[in-house]
Amino acid sequence: MPFYCCQSLLVADREAAEDMNCYRNANKDVVPRSNGYRHRIVSKDMAFYCFDILASHLYRLQEPPWPNFPNEEFPLFVTWKIGHDHRLRGCIGTFTAMRLHKGLREYTLSSALKDSRFPPVTKEELGLLYCSVSVLTNFEEKRQLFRLGNWCSWHKDRIL
């Protein structure tokens, strides 16, 4: 039985529009072309899929079938926020590229249930959650980390 939440649809649409406007304003271009893709990689179906995975786990239902969106390899993060003020409720992902279907299944549950900063998400919170999926592109090789370290020490910031 699929479980859908309209909040994820609204958040996905709003965040996608904000991201695209920010990109267009900064670069005077259209959709970024990365990893050989000429189309948007993230879709709202990914957020729906994350809700389906979490709901099936919390209600001890059969996991949903594999989704229809592409199953390419990318680093990814799944973020859960809660309430009208969108407080962080969990965020876990990987910088290692993995197939989207498997990665979303794994990191949906990890971010909702195993983020050490928060107690596990409960059934009662499910209707209050917002989900966002981050698929990382334009990934730079390790040698760029040295420059990042210099930038951080120059600005006296730290990487959490």
Automatic annotation (TrEMBL):
InterPro entries recorded: AMMECR1, AMMECR1_dom_sf, AMMECR1_domain, AMMECR1_N
Cross-referenced Gene3D superfamilies: Hypothetical protein ph0010, domain 1 (3.30.700.20)
Domain AMMECR1 stretches: 35-160
Pfam families in the record: AMMECR1 (PF01871)
Name of the protein in question: AMME chromosomal region protein 1-like
Taxonomic lineage: Eukaryota, Metazoa, Cnidaria, Anthozoa, Hexacorallia
